[in-house]
């Protein structure tokens, strides 16, 4: 069994669903045109991941292998319905902004994959931690990509914050420049942005590895 630290590290870095597994790419690319939209979908996905992992783990001893996947989908669909109705009731503008991609959380491969590969084999607390780690990793990629695209494309950050945090949050909007680069808000900009994030992660790993090798070489080098 993995330690809590390993589970968190896997979801956030070593096996991040958005940068490594490349799952849930459709909503990740389509919704990440602003920081608020990215955070909204990321929080919704995080909620569904934690609770679906918990429910799958609690019922793992009673589910037969032949029909476990339909049950997993039913659990996920129920939770997504709760999230969508809650957003429609309390965050209506955000619900309109996210559109079809909120109910499409049901089809997010990250959720079903974690339910089948991890939660169905682990105790509840461990399964919830995995859901939190994977969901947080996915939400962070959404937020970072959304924030970068918003800054480059509109010259703002936290535009529409009142959709997520209430009317008083409108003052949080930060204008970086008066104009923007439209490509960042279009579909090609989403692909380019995600590719750059993946490349940055790979560069950081290679740089850290090279730094470790150089440090080890200095330690083992003979002293004059």
Order of helices and strands: HHHHHHHEHEH
Shape: flat
**Spatial order of the strands forming the largest sheet:** 1-2
What is the count of helical runs?
Answer: 9
Q: How big a fraction of the residues is strand? A: under 5%
Helix content: 55-70%
Poorly predicted residue ranges: none
Structural class: mainly alpha
How many β-strands, per DSSP? 2
Instruction: Average the pLDDT over all residues and give the rounded result.
Output: 92
Kindly provide the radius of gyration, computed on alpha-carbon positions and rounded to a whole number of angstroms. 20 Å
Query: Biggest β-sheet: count, sense, barrel?
Result: 2 strands, antiparallel
Estimate nothing, just give the exact number of structural domains: 1
Question: What distance lies between the first and last C-alpha atoms, to the nearest angstrom?
Answer: 47 Å
Please tag this protein with its features:
224 residues; mainly alpha; 9 helices; flat
């Amino acid at each position: 069994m993995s330690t809590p630290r390993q589970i968190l590290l896997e979801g956030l870095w070593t096996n991040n669903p958005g940068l490594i597994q490349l799952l849930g790419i459709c909503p990740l690319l389509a919704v990440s045109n602003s920081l608020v939209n990215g955070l909204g979908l990321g929080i919704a996905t995080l909620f569904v991941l934690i609770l679906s992992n918990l429910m799958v783990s609690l019922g793992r001893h009673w589910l037969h292998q032949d029909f476990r996947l339909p049950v997993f989908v039913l659990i996920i669909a129920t939770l997504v319905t709760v999230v969508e109705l809650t957003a429609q009731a309390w965050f209506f503008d955000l619900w309109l902004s996210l559109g079809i991609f909120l109910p499409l959380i049901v089809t997010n491969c990250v959720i079903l994959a974690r339910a089948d590969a991890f939660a169905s084999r682990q105790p509840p607390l461990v399964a919830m931690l995995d859901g939190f780690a994977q969901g947080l990793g996915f939400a962070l990629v959404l937020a970072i990509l959304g924030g970068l695209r918003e800054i480059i494309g509109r010259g703002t950050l936290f535009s529409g914050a009142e959709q997520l945090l209430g009317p008083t949050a409108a003052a949080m909007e930060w204008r970086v420049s008066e104009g923007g680069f439209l490509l960042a808000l279009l579909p090609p900009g989403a692909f380019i942005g995600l590719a750059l994030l993946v490349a940055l992660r790979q560069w950081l790993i290679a740089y850290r590895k090279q730094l470790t090798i150089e440090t080890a070489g200095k330690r083992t080098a003979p002293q004059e």
